[in-house]
Amino acid sequence: MGSKDEDADLNAEVSSRLDELFGDEESDSSSISEAPQAPASDASAADQAAIDYTPSTPDQPDQPDQPDHPEAPSPVDALKALVFSIDWEITDVTMKEFLKEVKRLKTKYADDRISLMFLKLHESLGKYIKARKVKAHPDALKLLTSIYQQFEKTFLSPELSDAEKKKMVSKEVKKYKRFQQQVLATEKASKTRGAVSGPAASEAGREPAQPSAAMSQESREMADYILDELKQTIKSEFKALRQLLKSGDA
Amino acid sequence: MALINPKKKEVQVKIVYYGPGRGGKTTNLEYINQKFKKRIQNEMVTVKTYGDRTLFFDFLPFDIGEIKGHSIKVQLYTVPGQVKYNATRRLVLRGVDGLVFVADSMDLRREMNIRSLQNLKENLETFNKNIFNIPLIMQYNKRDLEEEGIPILSLDTLQKDLNARLKAPYFPASAVKGDNVAATMKKIIAVTVTSLRKKLE
Q1: Nearest CB to A26: which of B107, B112, B183?
Q2: Separation CA A172–CA A148 (nearest Å)
Q3: Among A62, A157, B77, B113, which residue's Cβ finds the most Cβ atoms within 10 Å?
């Protein structure tokens, strides 16, 4: 118990110092919820068992606890979430969900030519990204976001005329065509480089495209940086250990 | 393991922000670095890939002054969250004293949160550390997405998925807005330094 009091004292001292340094500047409006839990070190033996992280009822869609949306959900909310998700990480699951959602919307808006065109752009780009994944052209995600944003505008801005919507979709189609040409040019260039560099490259089965060359240089620099950091970390740890040994506290 | 220099009475505390890719770990440090620039007075070191995703780690060191006669130096690290960088994550975890698990509240990221936490547990085990015995704070980030109509996991679900047994203190947060970012940092530092009390005496 004595040690718990001492812990509490130390905690209070540290917290007070941190408050002085970092203040109470941020808003606490989004409820700061501290679980009034025992410190991790007091975990019981039962808690020492392997963590089973099977999510609770994974098959059941999670009912949101926030029923108080002031507006009705937009029909493209799911698509928006998927576009965000792709931007963060391209996975098979996300791409599958994305193409499924696009297909669903295409059926729903089959009579709306402008929406259909937007959705076809989503679909084409989605298939490209799904096939290429991390090797997709870096502009693919930017283009996808742009197409989505324009598409969303056509839903959320009822004041837009058909002519304006047509203009918006034409602009995105042009962007998409330019992007296609960029991708073809890049792939053509990499194939040419592959032929010039000879059998070694083709044996490796790699595509020596421009982005890869840039990445490997970056990777080399980063590797050098990391090695330096590692060396310094190791040096400082050894230094501290030597000092500990000298002081007889080992 | 905290680096303690008994002669200089210095303690170096390593805190790692862990979690799935794109969950907000780097954003946490960027916010702290930006908001408290004058107090921190150190540069944040970030190594990023082309594409703006953390390849290796972010590192932000600062002093919090003297506690119990020891000068406390804090080092905040983030790890790359993408699955393929496990070796780097393990490297950064070496010698960790305190952890912040930054979970992504997006509904679609539920499985990634769980896998990332499992990965953390496994990586700690390679250093003979037990996730139950190390200071840990959960941060449920991206709560602001709810305002944009993006489906997010409820706090209850996040707690059940990630914190049912760990029972760590948790903060709902929005790193882009700064909500509870400093609070999370202050809490992990306090909990970590407290855990080192015996070494400070």
Answers
A1: B183
A2: 10
A3: B113
**CA nearest B186: which of B39, B68, B55?**
B39
Bridge-based pairing state of the strands B136-141 and B170-172: parallel
Does this model's pTM top 0.90? no
Which residues of chain A make contact with B148, given a CB cutoff of 8 A? Answer: 80
Q: Could you tell me which residues come within 8 angstroms of residue B7 by beta carbon, excluding any fewer than 6 positions away? A: A243, A247
The class level of CATH for B3-200 reads: alpha beta
Q: Is the pLDDT of residue A46 over 90?
A: no
What is the ipTM, given to two decimal places?
A: 0.73
Q: Which residues contact A89 (CB under 8 A, 6 or more apart)?
A: B21, B22, B82, B112
Give me the residue from A21, A55, A225 closest to B39, CB to CB.
Answer: A21
Over residues B49-69, the pLDDT tens digits come to 545 555 567 888 888 888 878
Residues 6+ apart with CB under 8 A from B6: A243, A244, A247, A249
Q: Is A6's Cβ below 8 Å from some Cβ in B?
A: yes
The DSSP annotation for B96-156 comes to --EEEEEEE-BGGGHHHHHHHHHHHHHHHHHTT--GGGS-EEEEEE-GGGGGGT--B--HH
